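Hey,
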Amino acid sequence: MLATTSLRASRLGAIGHGRLLMVAESELAALRSTSTKPRVEKSNWKHNVVYLYQFPRTPYLPNPSPYCLKIETYLRVNNLKYELNGEQISDSQIILWRLAKLFEIQDPVSGHERGTARAIERMLDMSTVNSLNHDRMVKHAHLTLARNVSGVPLPAFASNFLATRFAKKAQSMINRKTDRLSAEELKENLKRDIQAVADVLDTKKFLFGDRMTIADCTAFGHLGTSYFLPFRQHITDLLDDDHPRVKNYLERIRAHYWQDWKLPEY
């Protein structure tokens, strides 16, 4: 059942035997400050049901956070029953480990492919995300926060004011994570990371064959939350012009696992 509700935050935790609260991290949430300790939203837990707390839907994306989209895609790929219930914050990698252990899900990779998959995951989570965030949250903050994109019911003057502050905080966060790479260096970084994804994908359906892996969920989460936005970015140019196979790969995942994800008419 899908039920989007509050925007309170909580932390990853296990509640009783076989009952899990899963909360996905977000780079947007990292920019928010709170003076109160997050609390758990759910008290009447159902056995072996995953409760996914995250941001509500937006007009163009199921979730603006690549980490949240990664987790929900993984749940859909593995047909895990879950409820969607607002925004929560924690580490998406740990969530996937816990899910795999609890539901005895084996990632369909082994040997050198397992090593490559792990490298791709960490590249996307630790490197690619910074380049994508710079484009989306700094350079195009005013478009990202626009009412038709974010779904936040604010007038243009208010969203533009918030976008300026948002971009400054996002830039500060990216500087801390990248040791102050320049805009051009971040663009080059994204170019090389996308080439790495394209090299691994080659002509296959998914990164490692005919079955989705955690690495695929991670790639879809990071690339999809930027590529499917309704304005051009560096990722748009790279996929449309240089890497159509990666573009088709994202479209293929969206069509198969996100049939309820309908993009607005331009």
